Amino acid sequence: MKNNLTEEQITTYRKEGYLIIEDFLDPHELEDWRTKVSEAVQSRTDNPMPSDKDYSEESDAIKGKKEIKGYFQQRMQLWMDNEPFRELMFDPRIGKMAADLEGIDGVRIWQDQALFKLPYAQQTPWHQDNPIWSFDSQHAITIWIAFDDATINNGCLFFIPGSHTKKYLKPEAGEPPARIFELNPELLQLQAPVPATMRAGSCSFHNGLLMHGASANMTPGSRRAMTCGFMPDGSTFNGTRNILPESYYQSLKVGDALDNNDINPLVYSRN
Ligand SMILES: O=C(O)CCC(=O)C(=O)O
Ligand SMILES: [Fe+2]
Fold this sequence. Notes:
The chain is of the alpha+beta class. The protein has one domain (about 5-265): Jelly Rolls, CATH 2.60.120. It contains 7 helices and 11 strands. The strands form 2 sheets. Strands 1, 2, 3, 5, 8, 10 and 11 form a 7-stranded antiparallel β-sheet that branches. It has a 4-stranded antiparallel β-sheet with strand order 4-9-6-7, with no helix packed on it. The longest helix has 17 residues, at about 25-45. It is globular, with a radius of gyration of 17 Å. The two termini are about 25 Å apart. The mean pLDDT is about 95. It binds 2-oxoglutaric acid (AKG) and fe (ii) ion. 2-oxoglutaric acid binds next to strand 3, strand 5, strand 9 and strand 10.
């Protein structure tokens, strides 16, 4: 695993809001991750969330997330019910990379997701990650790992460099993805979106406020990838339900620390 970051990589990440690390996993590691993530996805059958956890059908995380849209085979919080996947995701080397890129002391898992973009699936709309999560932070960070080559043809990510400085207005449900540029004309003043093409086994990190999306999959194969959003240790609840289990969500008041290791495990801490 190419987990040692140079000063130059950290500087680039902070300026652009993202970083691509080609061949992050070596061929042996790639095979191991691909197998374990595929097995974790299969063992979920058609359930996007762990079935024994307290996720109601009303949860934001579940609504509309089955394959009906022909979009993603999406399985979330695999760390919660799959031991081999948990070992991969709890690797402190990855947590340390996230903490070093953001210059923070520790990170917790906010959400992992296998995201297998299905053949001929549509564009992943432009969005920022952190504004839909249950905490507000300038230092949330997401890793995205490719298990197939990610190309412009099969749905690689696109990043808008330098767009990670503020929260942008969001289109309403059902509005076209391009609407975000009408709502936020300042996005047009930034650099053009950059395609994050990468070989299988490579990864990217992006800041939780970076504007990003992915192209459509114009190929007959799946674009297999996984992503994990990290929450800075010390973050507090902002009132949004997002992916929180029902009873935990009901127990929280705005401002409470999100420090429950059964829900948001601390995967790296400097202390
Ligand atoms: O894989 C995709 O199409 C979208 C992934 C994404 O938005 C993320 O990892 O934050
Ligand atoms: Fe995202």
